[in-house]
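If you are new to this repository, start here. Below is one unmodified record pulled from the training split, so you can see the exact layout before writing a loader.
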Amino acid sequence: MSHALAPPPRRATAAALLPALPPAAVVVLAGLPPTGDGAGPADVVSALLVGYCVILLLRERRRPLSRVAAVVLGLPVVGVALAAMGAASPQAAFGGLGRYLQVFVLVPAAVLVLLRGRADFRVLAWSFVGLAGWQGSVGVYQYVTGTGASYQGETVRAVGTFGASDVMGMATAVSLGVVCAAGIALGRAPVRQRAAAAGCALLLVLPLALSFSRGAWIATALACAVQLALAGLRRALKVAAAVVAAGVVLVGGFGVGTAMLQERIDSITEVTGTPDQSVVDRYTLWAAAAGMWREHPWTGVGLKNFPEYRDGHATLALSSGSDIAGAGTEYHKQALLSPHSMYLLVLSEQGLVGLLSLAGGWLALLVCALRRLSRARRGPGLDCALVAVGLLLWLLTDFVYGDIGGPSTVLTGVALGLTAWWALSRDGRPHTARRDGASERAEEAATR
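And here is the target side for that same chain:
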C-alpha cells in the first residue's frame, strides 16, 4: 500500500531539482556577452534571486539563516558599512556597498536558503561545468582563428564571450568549472558521472591554458592538488598521471601555444631582472595599496577611493593603463583602477576592520567545510565536500592576484554560496530546509 501511494521517482527527482534552477540560471547568464557598463543579465537575475528568497521565507514563515550562518555570512557587512561612510560621494558609497553585499552576503545566503539537498548541489556544480565548457569552446575557437584578445601583438588570447575588457572572465569561468568537475570525478557519484566529470576537467585544461591567466593557473593548480590530496593517495596518483598525459599530448604532441605559454609561465617568477610591464604594474599597485593602508590602518580610504589615492602613492614605474584590443574591441587604454588583489583592495579601502571581517568569514567557512569533509569520507557527499572546499580554495588563492569586477563577479557569489551550503549545514542539509519524503527519496536515489 505504501508503494502505491509513493510518488513516481521521476516526479520526485524533478521536484527536488527545482530549487537549484534559479541559482543555476545566474551561472548560465553570466556567460552572455556584455551589454554595456551597467548591470549584466546575471546581476539582474541575482537580484531577482535574492528577492525570491525573501518572498519564499515570508510565505513559509521560517528563519532565513541559523545563528552560525548569519554571523559567518554577515561579517563582511561590518567593514563595508564603515568604509562606505568614508566614500567620496553617496553614489560611490551605495554602489560599492551594493556590490560587496551582492557578492559576499546576499547571493551566498540565497544559495544557502534555496538548496535543499546534495542533488541540488550537484545540479549547480554541473552548471559551472557547463558554463566552462561553453566559454572554453569559444575561447579555443578564438585562439585557433586569431579572433581573441590581443596578446603580444597577436589576437590569440582566449576570453570567451566576456570580451577583451574582461580578460579574466573566461579564465574564472573555466577555472571554476575545472574545480567542480574535479570534485565530482573524485567523489563517489555513479561511474558514468565520474567519468564524464573527469573528461570535462581534462578538456577544460586547454582553454584555461589559452587564457594566459597566470593567477587562474596558480589558483586552479592549488585547488585541484588539495582536492586530490583530500580524496586519497590512490586517486591522486591516477588523476595526476592522466593530467600529465594530457599535458604531453596537448603541448608536446600538438604544440599548443608552446612558446607563448612557456614565456607566460616564466614571467610568474620574474619579480626582478626584466619582468614584463604587467608584472611591474601589479607590484607598483600593490605597493600603492599598502601605502594607503599605512596612512589609514583601521577603516581605509573609503569605498571606491583607490583610484583617487593611487597616483599619490604609486611610483613612476606605473604605466598609464592596460592595452585593450581584439575580440571585437577597438584598441584603447584601460585605466588601472584597482590593485588587482582582493586582499589589498579591501585593506586599502576598508582597512584592518574590513579585511579581518571579510577574510575572517572566509576562514570560518573553510574550517567548517573541512570539518564536514572528514565526516563525508565515511558516507555520501564526498563529491560535494571536495567541490565546496575546492571552490573556496580557488577563490582565496585567486584573490591574491585578482579582485572583483566585471560580469564574471557574480560567479564568485554563487561559488561562495555552494561552499556556505556545505559548510553551514547539518549533515549536508541546510538549517532552514523543510524536507519531505519525496525530496529525501530523490536525494538517496541520486547518490546511489
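Two things worth knowing about this chain: The chain has a mean pLDDT of 84. The radius of gyration is 22 Å.
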